[in-house]
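User: Please run a holo structure prediction.
Assistant: Happy to. Please share the sequence and the ligand.
User: Here you go; the ligand is NDP.
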Amino acid sequence: MSTVIDGKAYAETLRARIAESAAELKLKHDFVPGLAVVLVGEDPASQVYVRSKARQTVEVGMQSFEHRLPADTDEDDLVDLIGQLNRDPAVNGILVQLPLPKQVDSERIINMIDVQKDVDGFHVENTGRLSIGADSLVPCTPAGCLMLLKHYVGDLTGQNAVVIGRSNIVGKPVSMLLLREHCTVTIAHSRTRDLPSVCRQADIVVAAVGAPEMVKGDWIKPGATVIDVGINRITDESGNKVLVGDVEYDAAQKVAGAITPVPGGVGPMTIACLLRNTVIAACRQQGVDVPDSIG
Ligand code: NDP
């Protein structure tokens, strides 16, 4: 039986530390970090995420600014809004909820965000800085994966890590973070040959595919650490809608040394890391040290 990596509990502790940091910044430096979230359209999943982000921002004592725009919003109107938020000193972090509607060029919008306020870490400059090992705002889900790994495994030096998925928002940045921790990193994707054998070499498996329970229990090396990023809504045998990850959890947890569940693993870490990035961004903009509790 493996250790269950409790992302929900870890995220709660992290949020408490963020709340302490926010209180300390207010007391010592008289400012309150602010996060602006922009939602275009009515995608139900995006609406849930944006609501949670706003609620948790306020709960940790920071300012939340929500901008909801209709689905047919013009790209130029969004460009204007980003410009305003870039100039607003009360806004330290800007997050544009993805996906954006078809008429909007997402890459253009993301790269318009002031790089110092890019708390999602998707701006091409932050992406580049991450890949050369420079200081940057790191994408939230990958940052959450790394925190959980370091908390449960400790030093990652020399571990064989297999990351399944090469997206710009999860697979690639998580690979860069693991490389920075001196892992030997293999990035697998849809064209990888014999994925089960590749996985069986891994001390660490990070699955970020979006395919329900694709990674089978017998792909996992005994004692390996498994981080399941996948969030898939499926209908189970009893007709209930349930969330499952990319890993066949019941089988994998019999073999793995430690494993994240879905839900309750990586998911809760994403917003906590977004709040942490907002505090870091605010401190850098104000020219003050990031409080030790979240540094
Ligand atoms: P993408 O669809 O952007 O990328 C999926 C990746 O998986 C691609 O690189 C693709 O390869 C690869 N892939 C697809 N099929 C296979 C296969 N059969 N074998 C090996 N690799 C395959 O997804 P995201 O990275 O955005 O998200 C991945 C998952 O993580 C989703 O379930 C998503 O919901 C979840 N997620 C969870 C978050 C959280 O907060 N916990 C945040 C973000 C995402 P190729 O490049 O060759 O097409």
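The longest strand covers residues 34-40.
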